[in-house]
Predict the 3D structure of the following.
Amino acid sequence: MNSNKIYNWGILGCGKIAHKFAQDLQSIPNAKLQAVASRNIEKAKDFGDTYQTPTHYGSYIELAKDTKIDIIYIATPHVFHYENTMMCLNEKKAVLCEKPFAMNKAQVSEMIQMAKTQNTFLMEALWTYFLPHYEFVLQTLKGNQLGKIKSLKADFGFASTFDPNNRIFRKELGGGSLLDVGIYPLFAALSMIGIPEKIEASANFGETGIDEDCNMTLHYKNKVSANLFSSVIQKTETKAFIQLEYGSIIINSRFHEPSSVTITKDGDSKLYEFPVVTNGYNYEAIHVQNMLERGNIESTVMSFEKSLNLIELLDNVRKEIKLEY
Ligand SMILES: NC(=O)c1ccc[n+]([C@@H]2O[C@H](COP(=O)([O-])OP(=O)(O)OC[C@H]3O[C@@H](n4cnc5c(N)ncnc54)[C@H](OP(=O)(O)O)[C@@H]3O)[C@@H](O)[C@H]2O)c1
């Protein structure tokens, strides 16, 4: 292990989440934000100056070709994840790409194949998986002291004012609740219970054709079920409630970001807190660096198989609600 190595990061797309990620990179001693790329050079310069970034590009391909860069974080709207990832992998750059990994399973499969062909690291930025409170919940479930899961309820809703220019409402950018935030309750179900046997789903559509909210029920063996909800027009608690044989686990609001956990057993409740001083994106970034340190092209946590399962579930829900892009 070469623990002295400084990892040179590049950010592709200078939007909202890119800022949060750049802030968190600053908390990692052996990470450096070496370059940023925007479709607009002035925007790249402004973004880069905020984080003392030496190199700014006015096109994405220049970043992909920069030989100083070890890892590129892709933070563009969903519909561009596939082409941006393929371009970076083609230049043999490790890629951490925002969720959803791409628009459908066929695209994700091609991205994974490309990572294998190029022998280059690729991971979906499902940051929740790497957060301390979420790891604690998965460990607790594994420990089995509360018995088997009987049901899960998870939601993620926020209230956006309608704006046809906001990517959330733009169908051509992959807008809508399912791909943007519904992915988190679905990820919770997959990571806690696994692949369901049957899915039921319904959605309400807005004037731009995006799903404004989506109700999903996943059915598993032995009458286990998951009731999931996503919305971009109503703020919901954004909690995960897991009912088990001998107690319950609540991932308090908002469950997908740094949070606390309440465990109830035999009528006694205990709150577990996991103070995090960053936005929480440093955990996934450190994991990527650790994977590169080991020479892995695939994450040991958010593996190719897990990303394929997640996109397949999203595709299947989309079939149920008749949402086509
Ligand atoms: N992990 C999380 O917690 C989290 C949170 C929010 C979002 N996300 C994911 O991150 C991605 C970006 O979300 P965001 O909220 O940061 O979006 P955003 O603020 O709209 O930023 C997206 C950026 O993509 C670039 N872009 C390239 N082509 C574009 C086009 N035709 N139209 C608009 N932008 C274009 C733009 O950067 P330039 O102008 O610099 O080229 C833009 O600033 C989404 O896939 C979303 O699911 C993840």
Notes: Residues 7-126 form a domain with the Rossmann fold fold (CATH 3.40.50.720). The CA atoms of residues 8 and 32 lie 5 Å apart.
